[in-house]
Predict the structure.
Amino acid sequence: MRLLIVDGYPEDARERHRAGFGLTPGEAYAAVVKRIVPAAACDIALPADADAQLPSGAGLVSYDAVILTGSPLHVYHDEAPVRRQVELMRAVYDSGVPSFGSCWGLQVAAVAAGGTVTPNPLGREVGFARRITPSEVGRGHPLLAGRPGAFDAPCVHLDVVASLPANAIVLASNGMAGVQAAEIRHGRGVFWGVQYHPEFSLTELAAIMNRMAGPLTDEGFFRDPAEVAGYVGDLRALDADRSRRDLAWRHGLDEQVLVEALRTLEIRNFVARCRNGGTMRH
C-alpha cells in the first residue's frame, strides 16, 4: 500500500514540532500509518514550502490514498502556502484517489470543494474534544465504525468548518464544533475527515501544548506556565504508564483516548477501506 502524507506545516513550524516531539507532523503521521499497516510505503509532501515538488495527475493516481495533517496556518488567509494546499486538494479530488484529513486537513478539503472556514466563535478547543457525538448518518458510516454514542479525542484548533460544500455530510459534532467529522464528495473524489486529531499520542499532544504555553495562559486555559507544565507532565506520565488510574481519572480520559487502536480508529477505518478496495462513497 502506497500513501501520500501531505504535511501542512510551514518549515519553521515543522522544525519546532520536531524539536519538541522528535518527528515532524508528517513523519509522526506516517509512523502511525506504519503501525497500522507495517508494509505501507509513505511519501511526504510539503506544500507549504515554496520549492515543494508536488504530485499532480498521474503522480497522484499512483497512490492508494492521501492523508492530510494538521497545520498552524489559517485557510481563510490568502497567502501562497495556503493556496498551494487548496490547489493540491483540488487535484486530489480530480484524481479520484481517496483522501483523509485531521483538523487543517478537514478545513482544506472543505474549502477546496466550496465550503467555508472561520475562526471558531466559541474560541479555541484544545487538549481534548469532549462528547463528540455521531449524527444519525454518522452512526452508520464506516468512518466511525466502532465508536460509541459519545467519545473524546485529542484536539487543538482555533478554526472550524462554518459551512460544508454541496455533497457533504456531517458525521459528528460536539458543543464546540458543528462539524467534528464529515464526508465530502467532490469531482471524482471522496474525502473523510475529522476536526480532532486521532493520530496524536498523549506525548505528541503534550509537546504541542508545551510549545503553546504562552498563548494557552493568555487565553485563560491555565493560570501560569507552571500549570501548563504540570498538565503536560501528567499527559507524558500517563502515556508512559497507562495503569496510572489517578491521572486518567483526573483528566477524564477513558479507553477511547488511552488505547491506541481505539484512539486511531478513524485512520484505521479509512486505511482498511482503501486496502480492501471498497468504495469510499457511503
Notes: The first strand starts at residue 2 and ends at 6.
